[in-house]
Amino acid sequence: MAIVVILIAAWFLRSVIAYFLVAALINFIAAPLMAGMEKYVKWGKNPLPRWVYALGIIIFLLTSVFGLLRLIIPLLLEQADRISHISNEDLKRSFGAPLSDLQHYLGTWGIDGQLFSAEKLKQDFMHWVQSTDIHNAVEGVLSGVSIAGGWIFSVLFITFFFLKEKFLLYRLIHTLTPDNVEPRMQKVLRAIQDLLGKYFRSVLLQILVFGSYIFIGLSIVGEPYALTIAVFCGLINLISYIGPALGLSFALLFSIGGHIGADFYTSIMPHLMEVATVFIVAILLDNLVSYPLIFSNSLEVHPLELFFVVLAGFQMAGLGGMIVAAPVYTMLRIIAKEFFQGFDVIRSITRGV
Q1: How many domains does the structure of the chain reveal?
Q2: What is the span of the domain harbouring residue 73?
Q3: DSSP symbols for 93-129
Q4: For residue 43, which phi and psi values (nearest 5 degrees)?
Q5: Could you give the CA distance from residue 23 to residue 174 in angstroms, rounded to a whole number?
Q6: What are the angstrom distances between the C-alpha of 319 and each of 76, 102, 322, 333, 340?
Q7: Are 144 and 152 in contact (CB under 8 A)?
Q8: Is 166 helix (H, G, I), strand (E, B) or coil?
């Protein structure tokens, strides 16, 4: 009966629990940074108060988020404005020939190729824009921004106190932990802090390395939005398997948008092939060189196992769930190994822990 009550309470307080878990994750990741700051960042010979270090980390996180948004959003708005001013002449100049070839090919199979004419595509696009309820769309965006802002504030507020008071998180967990499992819970917390710290430091390094691959490659082929695409692709690469495909799609759309009005076969298509080649080379380098080196000491998870974990994360929480699926799964594996080792399935999925 007590378990049922706890589960019901957890369901109704799931948002608060989510804030707590994300803040705990950030605390585990930032713990080595806090220790380094206390050791090397001092006032004279004495370390600064912990709240100063905690505030510095929070400011760094906020600055990083707003810096990325400032880099990406203006260019997205620029692309949207450019698309809204595309003329029929530009469309015909860029896509008239390939669409004509497509219509001819479809005609040989008895399919009406007029469905893919430049005029039809332009009309469909403008109809979609005009039929969209702009008022509701703006309200939706503002609502999303408000929710995200509330999430960020709540999580960072909790994180600040976790960082400021060194053992606050552990005291909270100790309070909620029965005395008979306290030693095992302490072991779990140490393992989680160690493994997640290594995991996220490896992730940050991989973001930098993969983004550098993309930036260098796109700069070589003359892509004007190389930095923005590289930043986006480095971040989206956090999503296993699907991330590189999303990054490539983003890069191709940006490249097409930047070349509307040019001839498709002599300008757009060669550049798209160059962009695709850059991604293929970057993905190969990432999978064969940087990923094995960076994650050599990380927790081993079978690729198929990780794939289903990512899909489950998307099913439960969308894009955000896909991003946090791997670290949350890592935490659950550590807990399962310590408390449920008697089950064969648990021994199987925690073999590498």
Answers
A1: 1
A2: 13-87+135-176
A3: HHHHHHHHHHHHHHHTTT--GGGG-HHHHHHHHHHHH
A4: -105, 100
A5: 17
A6: 19, 34, 5, 22, 30
A7: no
A8: coil
